[in-house]
Amino acid sequence: xxLKALRLRCTPVILGxxxxxxxxxxxxxxxxxxxxxxxxxDLADVIxxxxxxxxxxxxxxxxxxGDTSAKILERLGVRDQDIxxxxxxxxxTKVSTKSSKHTKxxxxxxxxxxxxxxxxxxxxxxxxxxxxxxxxVISIRIxxxxxxxxxxxxxxxxxxxxxxxxxxxxxxxxxxxxMVPVAVSGVVKHSLSQGATDVGIPQSIQKQLxxxxxxxxxxxxxxxxxxxxxxxxxxxxxxxxxxGRLLAFEYYSGGKxxxxxxxxxxxxxxxxxxEDGTTSGKSFQIPCQAVLTSPFNRMRRHPVxxxxxxxxxxxxxxxxxxxxxxxxxxxVYKKTFQRRGYGNYLEIDHGAxxxxxxxxxxxxxxxxxxxxxxxxGQLIGYVGRTGLTTGSHLHYELRKDGSQVNPLLANEGTSNxxxxxxxxxxxxAIAPMKHQVALSGQVQFAYNKSVHSSN
Length: 455
Prior knowledge:
Layout: H1 3-30, H2 40-54, E1 57-62, H3 69-76, H4 85-88, E2 93-97, E3 106-112, H5 114-117, E4 126-131, E5 137-144, E6 152-160, E7 168-176, E8 178-187, H6 192-198, H7 203-215, E9 226-236, E10 239-253, E11 256-265, E12 270-273, E13 291-294, E14 297-301, E15 308-311, E16 314-317, E17 323-325, E18 330-338, E19 343-351, E20 354-364, E21 373-374, E22 379-383, E23 393-400, E24 403-405, H8 420-454
Parallel strand pairs: 2-7
Antiparallel strand pairs: 1-4, 2-3, 4-5, 5-6, 6-7, 8-9, 9-10, 10-11, 11-12, 13-16, 14-15, 16-23, 17-22, 18-19, 18-21, 19-20, 20-22, 20-23, 23-24
Helix pairs in contact: 1-2
């Protein structure tokens, strides 16, 4: 069908919408309401916007391994020969902060290099395009920071240069994302990972769940175990920006609750707490939301030197700049840099012979000085790749009387709980989460019962 025919067929629809709106305006006017356009010019603007939207083709794709600019544009349906992502990559531009209903508009003055903008076409990143019916580019967006807990969406937007109809320019934008809670329940089938994947739980949420279950000593799962999770889905202008933080979880085995906790952050204290306000029973929480890439190991081949040597900690891979939080209450007793080793790192003394170490940080948080007192869950720095490392991650160690112990298995010390005032705030904060997790679990239980009865 050609474009002219499409528009002719749509004309009655537009007229029908206009008549409907006119009736609505009349009714609204009789009720002295102003919730919809009441003037002829406003109504014309609304109709014209709909007409204009009919001439816009929306397309999106995810960058895959081995993708080139040409392959990406072909999948999007771009027929515009004047656009080339590789050429745009060499253009520097200013950063701007995109205004939204969640944030006030503000300008930045940083100049972005081609490496920041398009230096790499990163697999997994989302690309969206607005095109004319002929495949000409109206705008293209390339999003970063998918599958992270970043409260902002960062994207590069390519638009036609106002000074020329054949040239393009791009600008890097940031805007706050909306965090939408999602509740899901599942059943372990051979493995927790398989059961979670079967019900659509994203990989990053699965990793967060596994790390938290380890804090409750749930290191082995059995077929038939059930679980419920509540997590954030990050959205921006209707676009799924990937999952965020695990907010709550419950885990049952043999009909008994083995683990359950809720995320709480009031600005002073943050972390996962049981319903009664206590922690998992371990003094030391995982310091950042990340993926475990290298466990505690008494003999490991170093990824840089290739030599066999002990790995007296755990490596937690996370995007560059991911926040790092104190694993427990304590006092900073070392803040330094080691070029051929830990890079930027902190050591915190927690008393009773316990210390923790945080290495390869990109930078330290404001106020982190030797002698500073920190609380469990307080921001202390950011994930980086300083020192002897192959990529962005946190190397985290826990020591008892000077000897390293496995931080994922340690179950020593006194649990850090909430104060009475913090507990009252915690109860209010988790009330809706408890309801969503419980409802999700009931739905899963009813489904399991129906499946068993049919068999």
